[in-house]
Amino acid sequence: IDSQIFFDGKIQKMVSVLAALASVEFNRRCQMTMLKTAADRSMPVFDSRVFQLPNKMEATNAFLWREQDATKNAISMAARTMFSHKELMNKSGNEMQEMMWQEHGVNFNDYPVFFKRGTFVRRELDWVELTDETYFNIPEEHRPDGRVVQRHCMKELDMPKFSTVTNRVEVIFDSADPIVGG
Question: Which Gene Ontology terms describe the biological processes this protein takes part in (predicted)?
Answer without folding.
Answer: tRNA modification
